[in-house]
Amino acid sequence: MAGGVGARVVVGRHIYGNLYGCDPQILRDESALITIIKEATKIANAMLLSVGSYRFGPNGGLTVFAIVAESHISIHTWPEYGFATVDVYTCGDHTDPKAAFDYIVSKLKPQKVEAFFGDRSMYKE
Amino acid sequence: MAGGVGARVVVGRHIYGNLYGCDPQILRDESALITIIKEATKIANAMLLSVGSYRFGPNGGLTVFAIVAESHISIHTWPEYGFATVDVYTCGDHTDPKAAFDYIVSKLKPQKVEAFFGDRSMYKE
C-alpha cells in the first residue's frame, strides 16, 4: 500500500473496483445488499454510523451506502448490465478495507473485476 | 479522461483528492460544508437524493455526504491537520464531476491538492 514519502499523519486507504458479469438478482436485491454492506463494515473493522439505500432508474439499479466513523463504503449497481461498482475507503491502521472489498466482491459474484487502490493518507511534509 | 477500450455502456467518472493546508474553520463548519456539497451537486449537474453529515472524534472532524442519482459526493475533514479528502463520482455524459470537484476545492482553500481520476465506466467487451 505505497504512496508518498515520510510519516503518515492520517492513514487512509481506498480500494475501489468495477465489477462485470455480476449476478443480476443480487444487484437488484436491496435487503441483500444492505446485509452485505453491514457485514463488510464489520470485516473492515470499521464503526457503522449510518446505512442508506436508493433505487434509481427503471431497471432496478441501486445505491447502497454506509457511513463509517473511518470514512465510507458504497455499492452502485446496474442489474440490466450485470455491472456494479464498489468503494471501500477507511482510515486508520486498525481497519482492513481490502478484506471488506474482497468480501463484497465474493457476494456479487462477478466474472471480471477491475480493482484499484487510492492512497488517501496525509503525509508529514 | 482515458481508460479501457471500445464503447462505453455506462459512463462513470470519479475525481478524488487529498487536500493539504485547508482553512480549519471551514473544515469544522458543518452547515458550510452542507451548503458547499449541495452547490457542488448543482455544478456537477447531478440530481440530489440525500445529504448526510457526521461529526467524529474530539477535534471536530466531519463527514459530509451527498447521494445523487448519478452516484455520490463526499467530503471528509481533519481540522486539526488542515486536511480533507474529497470524492466526486458521477455517472452519465450530462454530468461534470471535475467542475464540482474544483468548486469544492476552491471553497476549502487548500495550499496543496493531490488530485486523481478513477474511470468507473463499463466498457463493451
3D structure, described in words:
With 125 residues, chain A is of the alpha+beta class. Chain A has a single domain, classed as S-adenosylmethionine decarboxylase. The first copy, chain A, has three helices and eight strands. In chain A, the strands form two sheets. Chain A has a six-stranded antiparallel β-sheet with strand order 3-4-5-6-2-7, with helices on one face. The first copy, chain A, has a two-stranded antiparallel sheet with strand order 1-8. In chain A, a hairpin with a 4-residue loop joins β5 and β6. In chain A, α2 packs antiparallel against α3. The longest helix of chain A has 14 residues. Chain A is elongated. The relative contact order of chain A is 0.34. The mean pLDDT of chain A is 94. At the A-B interface, β2, β3, β4, β5 and β6 of A face β2, β3, β4, β5 and β6 of B. Chains A, B: It catalyses: S-adenosyl-L-methionine + H(+) = S-adenosyl 3-(methylsulfanyl)propylamine + CO2. Chains A, B: Pathway: Amine and polyamine biosynthesis; S-adenosylmethioninamine biosynthesis; S-adenosylmethioninamine from S-adenosyl-L-methionine: step 1/1. Chains A, B: One of its GO terms (cellular component) is cytosol. Chains A, B: One of its GO terms (molecular function) is adenosylmethionine decarboxylase activity. Chains A, B: Its EC number is 4.1.1.50.
Question: How are the elements arranged and paired?
Answer:
The structure is a homodimer of 125-residue chains.
Chain A: E1 8-10, E2 12-20, H1 24-27, H2 30-43, E3 48-56, E4 61-68, E5 71-78, E6 83-91, H3 97-108, E7 112-119, E8 122-123
Antiparallel strand pairs in A: 1-8, 2-6, 2-7, 3-4, 4-5, 5-6
